[in-house]
Amino acid sequence: MSLIELIDATKAVIAEDASKAQALFQVANELIGTAKVEVRVGSGHRFTVDEPESLGGGNAAANPVEYALAALGSCQAITYRYWATQLGIRIDKLTVEVDGDLDVRGFFGVDDGVRPGFGAVRVRVRLSGPETAARYGELAHAVDAHCPVLDVFQNPVPVQLELVTTT
Amino acid sequence: MSLIELIDATKAVIAEDASKAQALFQVANELIGTAKVEVRVGSGHRFTVDEPESLGGGNAAANPVEYALAALGSCQAITYRYWATQLGIRIDKLTVEVDGDLDVRGFFGVDDGVRPGFGAVRVRVRLSGPETAARYGELAHAVDAHCPVLDVFQNPVPVQLELVTTT
Fold it and tell me: Which residues of B touch A154 (CB under 8 A)?
């Protein structure tokens, strides 16, 4: 099945029955070193998170805020693919660079007026292909309105936090 | 240098000179398949992002929203480590489970009243160690006030988006 056939079939199913659009994503993160974390994804994938040595980690892998930026950049890239396909717009090459500014005084509690997360994020999409700039602008508008991780960055997500302790 | 020595030294430096607290994190994401993305992190690490076959990908790796949940869960785990160390609270074992509900009608544009990102996220921290529940509650309070990726989920981040096209 081509991507456009899969998109059209999926849209038909979820437009008919909204219960079929409800997806649950799950991850489990275990702290296995000073700052090293093993991640098991519900879908079966595994990967590691760590901090650089300058922050007391072993530098075995990217750190959580780098994974957050990669989640945003890769989500933009994939949303470009799906929406270009839906809109009949051709893309030959696509890269997404993401920069994030973070003031670590927030994390360390040195100044509680400083937020612990990113103060600013910049996304630069580099796209080549045969369409007009206006047509790619139309695509960017559709992507930014429908990109799941961009929504997570730009808008508050309700997060329920629970602590279970055992001795 | 022990972790508490590193934390104390870092706090002394950034309390003295705020310019030393300004960190820049960077990632580059290249679309190399239907939904497959290769990520290069500024720190040198590399990893892959993909979608499952049901969504038209090759299932080579976790997808962007799973990486976003792992960024949150691993950030919680590491922030527990650093703040437990700062507060002198012992942790023997820590796992963080994160679940996210996502209605894919938003992503596919079937209903623009549905947000594309997570409608709800649940974080369950499982912690064992010798301290009282009250002491671990104090730790959780400090962690949730200083966890960078929790801040990204709970509060709007200013994101500047730029599209550069070439033919």
Answer: 156-157, 159
Among candidate residues A109, A12, A77, A108, the one with its CA nearest the CA of residue B27 = A77
Give the list of residues 6+ apart from residue B100 with CB closer than 8 angstroms, or none: A24, A25, A26, B65, B68, B69, B118, B120, B121, B122
Domain locations in chain B?
Answer: 63-156
For A57, which DSSP code? S
Contact at CB, A136 and B106, closer than 8 angstroms: no
A126-136 tens-digit pLDDT: 999 999 999 99
Tell which residue, A129, A109, A107, A125, has the closest CA to residue A117. A107
In this prediction the ipTM stands at: 0.98
pTM above 0.95, yes or no: yes
Banded model confidence at residue B167, pLDDT cuts 50, 70, 90: confident
Look at the domain B63-156 and name its fold. GMP Synthetase; Chain A, domain 3 (3.30.300)
Residues 76-135 of B with CB under 8 A from A: 76-83, 86, 91, 93-112, 114-130, 133
Cβ contacts of B133 on chain A, cutoff 8 Å:
165
Residue at A29: amino acid letter: N
Contact at CB, B148 and A107, closer than 8 angstroms: yes
Best A1, A81, A143, A163 residue to mutate vs chain B (most B CBs within 10 Å):
A163
CATH fold for the domain made of A25-61: N-terminal domain of TfIIb (2.20.25)
- Token look-up 């602008």 returns A137
A63-155: CATH, from 3.40.50.1820, 3.30.300.20, 1.10.10.10, 3.60.21.10:
3.30.300.20
Question: CA-CA distance, B6 to B24, in Å (whole number)?
Answer: 20
